[in-house]
Structure prediction request, 199 residues.
Amino acid sequence: MSTATTVDATPAPAKGSKKKLILIVGAAVLALAVAGGAAALLLKKKPAHDAEGEGESAAETARPAKPARHEDKATPSFVALEPFTVNLADRDAERYAQVAVTLEIGDAKLADQIKSYMPAIRNNVLLAIADKTAAQLMDRDGKRRLAGEIRRETARALGYEVPRTNDDDAEDGAKARRKGAKDDALPVRAVHFSNFIIQ
Prediction:
């Protein structure tokens, strides 16, 4: 009889542990189902909220809004020129500049064309930098004027008709702006300097 009680005692805990295991697994499945339902509810709520926002934005579109800077334009392409080391036009001392330039182009096809015209472009940019003195290139306005000149010289190398302007004379630059100089029609959107050292 003592053997029978031992046998009865051993199976009873095994049945209890199976019940506990089933309860734990069931609770875990229930918790996952609740979490999944909550996540689905939150995800469904977001598009509904976005749809309400679209209704408001449709009402706002009736009013003219300012466009973002790059929304209507294509993604620009960038063409990096090899760095320039140029003797500057200073007469009192030998000064030189090391300048690295990257051109921002609006069209990828034009970027390929620029690469085929690279010798002429480099020549024009080199001559534009060499005409400057260290004093003209030291301040921000001097660098800005040089960037504008590089844009125009690149356009000339590509065969665009670009009128000559005297950027060094601020009064002439103001006149050109008043006359509506067509810098927007140039193939290069912007000139970015990645290195600018004057020694």
The CA atoms of residues 30 and 135 lie 76 Å apart. The chain has two domains: 2-61, 77-198. The first strand starts at residue 77 and ends at 80.
